[in-house]
Write a structure and sequence with these properties.
Layout lengths: L3 H21 L3 H25 L4 H31 L13
Helix pairs in contact: 1-2, 2-3
Amino acid sequence: MVPLWWYILLAVVLFVIGAAGVLLRRNILVVLMSLELLLNSVNINFIAFGRQYDDFRGQIFAIFVIAITAAEVAVALGILVALVRNKSTLKVDDVTMMKG
């Protein structure tokens, strides 16, 4: 049986990698993949603590997070396709089109 702290350590490593990707990278696709890493680290924590306390609510929350992530990816890819058609770039610094 794997101890709980291994799951927490894995989630922390994934969260740090995802946060560094969001803060340091300039490509929109890399930023979106880093956000996915952040959400997956949260899912690992939900499932690990749910398993530790014999509660299914952690798995239920993880399923909801996965569903919301799938919707976010669909919307983001649609926006990216429109952006590439108009600007021909995926760099965060070059995209000022969506400012209000």
